[in-house]
């Protein structure tokens, strides 16, 4: 099949699509293409997830506007089906890969899932298929890993027998469908013609700019945009640490800095989590670092942001001293285990790093999160016999919390606010011993 023929199939909605990986990216992508009228087959290794989707149930929890309803709609219409069998992809005109791409302890990409998906696809890849990688990958991966592995496993040649492109996702939990519909995308093709064909496909679900590029540019754009955010969060966190030491208020400082034209200081906080920002800066730097380029700013920013949960533990220890307790003597309630507010996504959760730190200090830990199944339950019951509470995630439920009831359940009125949810003046008037990111304590 030629690219021109593929584009005509997109226009007529007769192209058959496959999506490998039905998680936070793959499921909403598959659902939107199904809503647009395509026949979509999703592949996932988790049989339970596949069964849920085929029953019209979204396995993604948290506050995810419209997703549950859309999954129910497109499965009922027959436009979306799910399977665990890779062989079912052999009749697909387009296959989109949405699998996890983490980094290891040395910050090198771990492409176990990606390689496995490519090998499985290669064994059933048909001539004329357009393969698109949406997973975030290090610059050079399309040329150095994806293309050779697909060619080896399929016996086909890119641009002659099949087509290849990279269109990295730009989504975040809580806004999955909205981001997919309204945020611009970079369509990196192995050839300019492939890029234009990808634009024709994504135009059926995306209402924003679709920019053609080559694969390396697409790889660089995605990793650079998340590295940019990581660096700017690290700056905000370091200013917050400075404010604590000199008796300033980082939230007032941020407000006034941002009144200066061209300035946009981000929010400091208790840590940076999720599947993207903690790893994408390392993906951006990986190949250049291997070739001897010094990576200074990215490494420093990662160090600052990674250390923020440990700083929360230090703020706790400082507050506990006012009630004559050490961390080893304390029982502490942590509010929030997801990495993002109003989400159930716990990937690279700063709360997990905090729990590890507190356990190392001998602290007893109790965890509450209204979105994470393991940690649901009555918050006030969990607060009983705790000596302090740490706010790690700004879930809406915590913004509306009855602080007086929480204080009554605790042994001591100690609160550490890692997300600037509560007003210091209000807490002071209620008798709380309060610590927060970026506010110096005047003794």
Report on this model:
This protein folds into 3 domains: about 5-215, NAD(P)-binding Rossmann-like Domain (Rossmann fold), CATH 3.40.50; about 225-305, Orthogonal Bundle (N-(1-d-carboxylethyl)-l-norvaline Dehydrogenase, domain 2), CATH 1.10.1040; about 305-435, NAD(P)-binding Rossmann-like Domain (Rossmann fold). The longest helix has about 30 residues, at about 215-245. About 40% of the residues lie in helices and about 15% in strands. The strands form 2 sheets. It has an 8-stranded mixed β-sheet, sandwiched between helices. A 5-stranded parallel β-sheet has the order 10-9-11-12-13. Helix 1 runs parallel beside helix 8 (about 190-200), helix 9 (about 215-245) packs across helix 12 (about 295-305) and helix 13 crosses helix 14. The chain has about 450 residues and is of the alpha/beta class. The model has no long low-confidence stretch (mean pLDDT about 95). It contains 18 helices and 13 strands. Helix 2 links the parallel strand 1 (about 15-20) and strand 2 (about 40-45).
Q: Kindly provide the radius of gyration, computed on alpha-carbon positions and rounded to a whole number of angstroms.
A: 24 Å
Spatial strand order of the main sheet = 3-2-1-4-5-6-7-8
- How would a textbook summarize the main sheet? 8 strands, mixed
Instruction: Kindly give the count of domains.
Output: 3
Helix content: 40-55%
Assembly status = single chain
Number of helices: 18
**Quick one: overall form?**
elongated
CATH topology of the largest domain: Rossmann fold
Mean pLDDT: 96
Low-confidence stretches: none
| Strand element count | 13
| CATH homologous superfamily assignment of the largest domain | NAD(P)-binding Rossmann-like Domain
The helix-and-strand class reads alpha/beta
CATH architecture call of the largest domain = 3-Layer(aba) Sandwich
| CATH classification class of the largest domain | Alpha Beta
User: Into which percentage range does the β-strand content fall?
Assistant: 5-15%
For the record, give the distance between the C-alpha atoms at the N and C termini, rounded to a whole number: 74 Å
């Amino acid at each position: 099949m030629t690219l021109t023929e593929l584009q005509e199939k997109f226009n007529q909605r007769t192209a058959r699509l496959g999506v490998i990986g039905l998680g936070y990216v793959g499921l909403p992508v598959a659902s939107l293409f199904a809503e647009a009228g395509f026949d979509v087959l999703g592949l996932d290794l988790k049989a339970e997830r596949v069964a849920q989707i085929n029953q019209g149930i979204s396995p993604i929890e948290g506050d995810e506007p419209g997703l549950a309803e859309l999954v129910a709609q497109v499965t009922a219409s027959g436009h979306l089906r799910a399977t665990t069998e890779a062989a079912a992809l052999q009749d697909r005109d387009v296959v989109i890969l949405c699998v996890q791409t983490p980094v290891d302890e040395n910050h090198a990409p771990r492409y176990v899932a990606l390689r496995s998906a490519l090998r499985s696809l290669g064994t059933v890849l048909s001539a004329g298929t357009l393969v698109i990688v949406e997973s975030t990958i290090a610059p050079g991966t399309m040329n150095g890993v994806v293309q050779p592995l697909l060619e080896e496993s399929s016996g086909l040649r890119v641009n002659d027998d099949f087509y290849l492109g990279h269109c990295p996702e730009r989504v975040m939990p809580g806004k999955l469908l909205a981001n997919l519909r309204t945020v611009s995308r970079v369509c990196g093709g192995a050839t300019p013609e492939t890029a234009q064909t990808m634009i024709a496909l994504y135009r059926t679900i995306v209402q924003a700019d679709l920019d053609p590029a080559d694969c390396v540019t697409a790889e660089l754009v995605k990793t650079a945009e998340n590295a940019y955010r990581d660096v700017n969060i690290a700056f905000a966190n370091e200013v917050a640490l400075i404010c604590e030491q000199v008796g300033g208020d980082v939230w007032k400082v941020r407000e006034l800095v941002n009144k200066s034209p061209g300035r946009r200081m981000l929010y400091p906080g208790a840590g940076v989590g999720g599947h993207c920002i903690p790893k994408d800066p390392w993906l951006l730097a990986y190949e250049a670092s291997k070739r001897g380029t010094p990576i200074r700013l990215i490494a420093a920013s990662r160090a600052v942001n990674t250390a923020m949960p440990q700083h929360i533990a230090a703020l706790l220890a400082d507050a506990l001293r006012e009630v004559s307790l050490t961390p080893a003597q304390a029982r502490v309630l942590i509010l929030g285990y997801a990495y993002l507010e109003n989400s159930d996504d716990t990937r690279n959760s700063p709360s997990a790093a905090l729990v590890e730190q507190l356990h190392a200090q001998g602290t007893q830990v109790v965890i509450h999160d209204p979105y994470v199944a393991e940690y649901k339950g009555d918050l006030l019951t969990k607060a009983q016999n705790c000596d302090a509470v740490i706010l790690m995630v700004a879930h809406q439920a915590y913004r509306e919390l009855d602080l007086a009831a929480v204080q009554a359940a605790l042994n001591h009125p100690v609160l550490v606010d890692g997300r600037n949810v509560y007003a210091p003046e209000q807490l002071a008037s209620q008798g709380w011993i309060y610590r927060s990111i970026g506010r110096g304590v005047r003794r």
